């Protein structure tokens, strides 16, 4: 003779088993459905991600187009842009350049919007981020311009750049740019 408690446990046990079996079948069907669909992820870094059209990557700086107005410095909410003096390459330009701290940048784009259309010295690249083991990375204007040129030369588009690894390249290229600016300012005379 069974008691009410035994019947309840027995009924409850069967109910759980049947619900568990149907749940298992449903989850297996869902897995099978997604198994034959295309992958939702990419095998980064072997496959490059498709970035949206309005993607705002690391800032690039065209040192020759910069008119030194400082509008970008005033617009920057993180204060990661700084004024630096350098060789005066043109009688219409004051010899003022912009230095940049890429590790503090939000990529908000306010500086790009503030940069006068006449100049167009600042723009966003397709470089996803700058990675560094250093707490503070500071780019002088010629180093920033060197980074901008190296993006195209080395094919760093759609990638994260390890600053510690590429720092010697940037420094070497920066020396070339600085020399080029000084030659331009003196009219090719030493």
From TrEMBL:
Organism: Ignicoccus pacificus DSM 13166
Cellular component terms (Gene Ontology): membrane
Key word Metal-binding present: yes
Domain of life the protein comes from: Archaea
Protein's name according to its UniProt entry: Dehydrogenase
Span of domain 4Fe-4S ferredoxin-type: 65-116
One function term, GO molecular function aspect: oxidoreductase activity, acting on NAD(P)H
PANTHER family, per the entry: NADH DEHYDROGENASE UBIQUINONE IRON-SULFUR PROTEIN 8, MITOCHONDRIAL
Coiled coil (residue ranges): none
